[in-house]
Amino acid sequence: MIFDELMRAHGISTVPRAGLAMSHAARQPAAAPQVRAQPATVEAVRAAPAPAPPPLRAQPATVTTVTAEAVRASVPPPADSEELERVRHSLRQHRVALGNNLADVVGTLPGAAFGALVAELLRRTGFTVLTALTTTTSGSGSASEGLISRDPLGIDRLWLRAVQLPPRWVIDRSHLQGFVDAARMAGQEHGLLISTAVLTAEAQSAVAQLGAGISVIDGPRLIELMLQHDLGLAPELRVVVQRVDRAFFARL
């Protein structure tokens, strides 16, 4: 208080201590406001640059060899090839049906006619019939026998037996052995047995054991030979199947 009076006597005003404190506090710089971290928005994420991709490594080159056969196999066949294949399939079916019809006719021939048929087949395949065939008939079929040769001079001779049996009959080992005995009685070591029946597996094994001395032509093989040599067949229709000649157009 004495200090205040002395100050006023000298014309100096005083300021309350609280005012000094406030004035001193006013001279202190204001603290910087705290900034709160804001969550990242979708726009900020989209605007952020994408990470750089990893460096690419050079891969070794792969060489594929394509052959001409593979190229041809990948090309679909032309339409005319498919049409020709259908024609061939129809012709094969016709041949099978023709063979079945031919077998039915051969199976119903009289014994002597069947023997004549076999003799004609042998002539067309290069054999020579040296003697007239003798035909015997029974309730189970017929058999025609005689001497034939593989050559025109008649040197390589064989004993022939042509046997006509009912449908679905087979040639077993006993039939084969009877034929071998008949050939030996005729003085021949070689023989040819032709029949409309089918060889059993046992008879086939027996033929293999006999070697080259005995040959057998069964029913299916007989019909196949007749088809090959046009025996008992007449032309009904001759058709020339044509195709597009692509080589002709390639030469233009």
TrEMBL record:
InterPro entries: Restrct_endonuc_IV_Mrr, tRNA_endonuc-like_dom_sf, Type_IV_Methyl-Rstrct_Enzyme. It comes from the Bacteria. GO terms for molecular function: DNA binding; restriction endodeoxyribonuclease activity. Residues 109-226 form the Restriction endonuclease type IV Mrr domain. One of its GO terms (biological process) is DNA restriction-modification system. It holds the Pfam family Mrr_cat. This is Restriction endonuclease type IV Mrr domain-containing protein. It comes from Flexivirga aerilata.
